[in-house]
Structure formats: structure tokens, C-alpha cells
Design brief:
With 371 residues, the chain is of the alpha+beta class. It is 62% helix and 12% strand.
């Protein structure tokens, strides 16, 4: 029986793999920390691709920009410098990252101005409300990226890590946001909504900071655990960056609360819609129009126990009136109070659509005596 099990497993054992030698990894990190011509060519190309992908609302193009970007390599060099307490490597990596961030934001802002961008779409709005979930993604991706860098066999995983973290797109969104006014015009499908609050630049840059600090701290810990550096030498760096991570968690925690409230209010809208459909069915009326009501966009900001909610609905023309909106606000206010909030300010924008019903029955034949 044991022989049979061994034949199936191939004498399986835990393979710890050979680590990349410290000197070799050191040389690689030094090379990646330098602001070379190739670095800026790839980074600016990535910024152009990402900006055009965001403007055209193309997910595939934005993903392509993530793969091209070399920015994460410089951040990993910064983390390695922190782990080995190399001041020169830390400074050079920090300068390279700063120059890279400036180049990306400037490139996207210039493109936005040249194209005269006056509206945003879902690829942009999706990167304006970071929370602790985004920080968790950055930390997990950084663990994968930094660990794969210490193992030659795992180096092919870097592209997937770059896609998971997405450093360049948030910076491009910041550049686009800087060129927009105080009120944003958003496009949802074929409908346009004006007057949404412009928090694009600050929200997307907070997402970038979450990625940057999350990657640096997680990679620093991985390099220490892999014994490329020692805690005794770099404990000040570790404490400083853990402190930055703690400070970053304050706004991200607030954003996570906003995210949770938004999820609950989105679900409440679904319950309101289902209730309207059920009521019409019980009254033996046609609920078809209410089935065509869709929630296109929602945004929640919580301050001083008051939620400010923006909803964009796509609904049949003349279906939603002030009475139905008032009912919706009362239901959502009750749900908000159950979540510990005291008040709710609801702003509903409706993109109307027209629903036509066609009669496919042939017309009745005219009588022979009719003229």
C-alpha cells in the first residue's frame, strides 16, 4: 500500500526552492532603483495607454497598461533598501518613485486637457473610493511579488501581481480628476448625469497611497523573513512604515464604512423594487415597467452620522415621480438608522427610457360594406 501511494505521489515532499543569492538580488534592486531612460519610456507609455483606456472605458486596455508599468519594481527596491538599511538605495528608489508618480499624473492631465475631457465613466469612478479591502489586495499582491522575486522559478508571477495592484491607473485617474471642475458629469450607458461631487483626484490618489504603503510594508516584512535583512538593523524603518500604514488605515476605515453603508442601501433599493413588483402583481396590474428600473450608480459619504447618497437610476419615462422618490427616501432612512446613522440626504438622478409594446396580432379584416 505504501509503495502504491509513493508511486502516485512521486515521493512527494515539501520543496522549499533555492533562494536567489543576496548579492544577486541586491544588484537587481540597485539596477531597478535607478531612474533610467527605459524606466520612463515604459512608464509614460503605460500612462498613455491607461489614460486612453480610462477615457474610452476599456477594461482590457487598462489591464494592458498595468502589465507595461515598471513602477512596482522601484517600490520593491525601496522595500529592499528598507530591509537592508541601505540609505542610498532608499533615497534613490524614493526619488525614482516620486519622479515616476509626477510623470504619470502629468501625462494623464495633459492628455485629458488635449482631448477636452468633460465627463467620466465607470472605469474612472471605480477608482475613487478606496477602502481597507484595497489595502488588503495590495498587501497580498506585495507578498506574492516580493516572494517570487526571491525565487527564480516564480519570476513569471510578477505580471499577475502588477495586474492585481494596479499602480498606474489610479495615478492616471488623479491626473484626469485635476482637469475637471468641482461638479462631475458622469456617463452611464447612453445617459448623462451632471452635478456629481468631484472627489476623483483625492480618492484615486488615496488608492495609490494605499497600494504604495501596502506594498512597501508587506515586501519589507517578506524580505526580513527571507533573511535578506535583519530586524536589529532596520527596526526604525519598520516602525516608521508601520506607523504610516496605521495612519492610512484611518481614512480607509471610514471609506470601508461608507462602502458597507452603500452595499446596504443598494440592497434596500433592491427590496423596494421587489416590493413594488409584488404590489402590482397583487393588484393584478402589469409590473413590467418596474422590472426595467435599474440602479446604474451609487455613492455614499458619511460624515457626523449623516449619509449623503447619490443614486443614478435608469427607469421608464414618467414611472418615478416625487411621491415614489419620497417613499424611497423614507425606506432608506429607516435602513440608515438601523445602521447607526441619524439622517440621510438622498439625491436621485433618473435617466429616462421609453418602453414600447408592439401588437403582433394581425388587424381585423374590414367589412366589405365599409367604405
Amino acid at each position: 500500500m505504501l509503495r502504491f501511494a509513493d508511486s502516485l505521489s512521486g515521493h512527494w515532499a515539501v520543496n522549499l526552492e533555492t533562494k536567489v543569492p543576496r548579492v544577486e538580488l541586491y544588484e537587481t534592486r540597485i539596477a531597478s532603483s535607478k531612474p533610467s531612460l527605459g524606466f520612463f519610456v515604459l512608464l509614460i507609455s503605460s500612462a498613455v495607454i491607461a489614460t486612453l483606456g480610462l477615457i474610452s472605458n476599456s477594461t482590457a486596455v487598462v489591464i494592458g497598461a498595468m502589465i507595461v508599468s515598471p513602477l512596482m519594481d522601484s517600490i520593491l527596491s525601496l522595500a529592499f533598501g528598507l530591509a537592508v538599511s541601505d540609505g542610498q538605495l532608499i533615497r534613490r528608489s524614493a526619488v525614482t518613485v516620486t519622479l515616476g508618480v509626477t510623470a504619470v499624473v502629468s501625462t494623464s492631465a495633459i492628455i485629458s486637457l488635449l482631448l477636452g475631457i468633460g465627463h467620466v465613466q465607470s472605469e474612472i469612478t471605480a477608482r475613487t473610493s478606496p477602502n481597507l479591502i484595497d489595502l488588503g489586495i495590495a498587501v497580498a499582491a506585495a507578498v506574492a511579488g516580493s516572494f517570487s522575486m526571491t525565487r527564480e522559478r516564480l519570476s513569471n508571477s510578477i505580471a499577475g501581481v502588477a495586474i492585481a495592484v494596479a499602480l498606474v491607473p489610479p495615478l492616471c485617474v488623479s491626473g484626469i480628476g485635476l482637469t475637471l471642475g468641482d461638479d462631475v458629469v458622469a456617463v452611464f450607458g447612453r445617459g448623462t448625469v451632471a452635478g456629481l461631487t468631484n472627489q476623483i483626484a483625492e480618492g484615486s490618489f488615496l488608492l495609490f497611497l494605499a497600494n504604495l504603503i501596502g506594498i512597501a510594508v508587506a515586501s519589507l516584512v517578506v524580505f526580513l523573513l527571507q533573511q535578506y535583512g535583519s530586524v536589529g538593523r532596520c527596526w526604525r524603518n519598520l516602525v516608521l512604515w508601520l506607523g504610516l500604514l496605521g495612519l492610512l488605515c484611518i481614512p480607509l476605515s471610514s471609506s470601508l464604512h461608507d462602502f458597507s453603508v452603500r452595499q446596504e442601501l443598494d440592497a434596500e433599493f433592491g427590496r423596494i423594487k421587489a416590493g413594488q413588483i409584488k404590489r402590482l402583481k397583487m393588484a393584478q396590474k402589469n409590473p413590467r415597467l418596474w422590472t426595467r428600473v435599474r440602479l446604474m450608480y451609487s455613492s455614499v459619504r458619511v460624515a457626523e452620522n449623516k449619509a449623503s447618497v447619490d443614486l443614478v437610476l435608469n427607469a421608464p419615462e414618467d414611472l418615478l415621480n416625487q411621491a415614489s422618490i419620497d417613499t424611497m427616501q423614507r425606506n432608506m432612512l429607516e435602513r440608515s438608522k438601523a445602521l447607526g446613522l441619524e439622517d440621510l440626504d438622498l439625491n436621485v438622478s433618473v435617466i429616462p427610457n421609453r418602453v414600447y409594446r408592439f401588437n403582433i396580432d394581425p388587424p381585423a379584416p374590414s367589412r366589405s360594406g365599409d367604405r
